[in-house]
Amino acid sequence: MSYGEVFAADRNEYGVRVARKPSQREVLEAESLRIAEQLAKIARFGDDVYEDDTVLAFDYQFNGGSKVYSYAIIKCAGRWYTTGTKVNGGQTWDQLVRFWTQGTVVNMWVAAEWEQVL
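-> structure tokens emitted (118 positions)
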């Protein structure tokens, strides 16, 4: 059962939703489901195990959107700096995970090798 299905059973014999105030138990169960879903999203990214100078690239889809955007981030002095126009200054890993869980990270890569060009 998902968070949105908790009160779906409150319908009469004609399938019409019956208005009633949910019990405290139902409210807490719904909140528990919402928290469990959020924890599962967060667990996908794990802890920040990356050293300074690590570069990650990821494809991101904003919640409700269909376009996929590509970003690169680099870790410097313990903070992550990203491409894009909406983020000023470095972010902590927790701030990144909060952003990532508001939409969908389609792919993510870590730069494993550099090629010298000059």
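Residues 24-43 form the longest helix (20 residues).
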